[in-house]
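Lab notebook page, bench 4
Experiment: in silico fold of construct C2
Operator: M.H.
Input chain length: 224 residues
Purpose: comparison with the prior construct
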Amino acid sequence: MAGESDDDAGNDDRDADADDGHDDALDAVLAAYDLKDERRTGWQLRGVDSPESVAAHSWGVAYLVLALGDRFRGDLPNVDLDRTLRLAVVHDAAEAETGDVATRADSTADAVDREAKEATEREAMADLAGPLPERVRDAWEAYEARESPEAVLVKECDLLDTCLQAVIYERGDRYDPARGEPDAFREYDDLDEFFATTEPRLRTEAGRELFATVREQYRAARDG
């Protein structure tokens, strides 16, 4: 129609989507909701009863940012906690398509091809975030780059969340090696490997201090 604006054309497209029950953005959100059922592989390897989902882990990371983010200002003085929350929400979104790949410290475990993993996740995000606002893909890319204080803080909380979850599973006696993969316990007993994979990857003093406290709580539960 002559004189039709781009905005009008966009509205027509959205109306057509509504008429046929199809909405690309909602479809992308529904695809990302698979994270609610995607179980964290590391816990499954160790026979954890009803292990957390990737979405539950992402909530834990976001909650750590909100609850303890101020403790990192000595290491990351310019960190924007609101922007950090945005990164935390999407940091594992690609796993809705790729699934979760456990990080291992065990020298006998199969090594992860980091370049292939990154390429696969980037392709997944192109699908998942394609019809969504640019801020979704931008937040994920910022996290992957690990260059901003917000991305560093999300990664610190990502690592710490795993250790906190190990405390919960240890206190609740929630795992049984007989239900897991025997090779998962080849070099590390109990849930010790999660702490072994975390410690060398922490980049801040605040993160290391919190890690030391959480590790003591874990050891007390494990040995008590």
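Observations: The chain is about 60% helix and 0% strand. The longest helix spans residues 149-171.
Next step: discuss at group meeting.
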